[in-house]
Amino acid sequence: MPHRSGRHFLQIPGPTNVPDRVLRAIDRATIDHRGPDFGRLGLEIFEGLKAVFQTAQPVVIFPASGTGAWEAALVNTLSPGDRVLMFETGHFASLWNKMATKLGVSVELVPTDWRRGIDPAAVEAKLKEDKQRQIKAVCVVHNETSTGCLSPVAEIRKAIDRAGHPALLMVDTISSLASTDYRHDEWGVDVTVGGAQKGLMLPPGMSFNAISDKALAANKTSKLTKSFWAWDEMLTMNKVGFFPYTPATQMLQGLVVSIEMLHEEGLDNVFARHGRLAEATRRAIKAWGLDIICRDPKYYSPTITAVLLPEGHDAEAFRALALEQFNISYGASFGRFTGKMFRIGHLGDVNDAMMLGGLAATEMALALANIPHKKGGVQAAMDYLVSQHGSAAKQAAE
Ligand SMILES: Cc1ncc(COP(=O)(O)O)c(C=O)c1O
């Protein structure tokens, strides 16, 4: 592959751009993972992660991609044959279902058209039907990365409570954590699954479980086979900043810096920035006259927007052309939308000007690929961003 000048526009919904400051932290020499410096690093990380998950409860870290943390959530809380309720919001919800089924859990998968988030009323209805209280867990993908639909976790919690059902609530926040408001404790989530490579701006390869007391109690009786993923030894060693097996030292050195950066910006500002970039992206897409996969604005994702191409246009060919001509990558298409959509990521270490660069490349690629669209998407995004900065500037002056 010949050199392409300038920075690549990594407009996929994760792994995201790793900031130079995090790269420099990862670049440091290896330290002894049983030594005092590591212990201090570990304790700082476990404390820092609590603020990110908005929890006072423990967060365990696995040297694995997000899929590992999915497995850890299931095997630590459930027993063979346990019933679990899942919602097929898209590709990732389908994969979690597939994993649970392989592990010997009995999943009821509620279908959707992949164009909306979970309706809390459907959760309530399903749980009310379960008179014997056999459902042990409700598993929710907070932000369905394959479609750009966000499910309302706080409302789902209320729906479970209205049904008076004791099921655990497990939530996958792999593409929402540290990008949009998420409250493990306040929303009564029992296991939150997180990943390093999106809002936390780290390379892939590290993932998390935030664990409630109720999940810890379920762990005591759960019978699914677990060893590498077992929480108990992790939690014991984590209390003093260490791990039961060799941790991903350099990744943890990066994590401490990424948490620091999130706090320097302020989590509320991080969430507002993601909301702003998402809205700018949607305004561009609407100005182009193209359809957003997520049909209902109440489910719009703050981190990824999937764009449906007009009938007869191949999204994979479009992605290849955009990469070749403008050095930009979009998320691929999955399942029922294979070849029909491309996904624009707007999460992690990205600012307004970077986003506009990505949208400008997209508008040019649409023209070059002869995809019917109107001009002016980038202008619409710019107008929106200016209006947001304008109101912020006015507020600061008052
Ligand atoms: C919502 C969601 N869940 C789970 C996963 C799987 O994580 P990983 O690919 O890191 O194993 C992803 C990956 O993008 C995801 O977006």
Short synopsis of the structure:
By secondary structure, this protein is α/β, with parallel strands linked by helices. It has 13 helices and 14 strands. Bound molecules: pyridoxal-5'-phosphate.
- Name the overall outline: globular
| SSE pattern, N- to C-terminal | EHHEHEHEHEEEHEEEHHHHEEHEEHH
Whole-Å distance between the termini? Answer: 53 Å
What topology, given as strand order, has the largest sheet?
A: 2-10-9-8-5-3-4
Structural class label: alpha/beta
Helix content range of the residues, please?
40-55%
Radius of gyration: 21 Å
How many DSSP E strands? 14
The helix tally amounts to 13
Name the beta content range: 15-25%
Bound molecules: pyridoxal-5'-phosphate
Major β-sheet profile: 7 strands, mixed
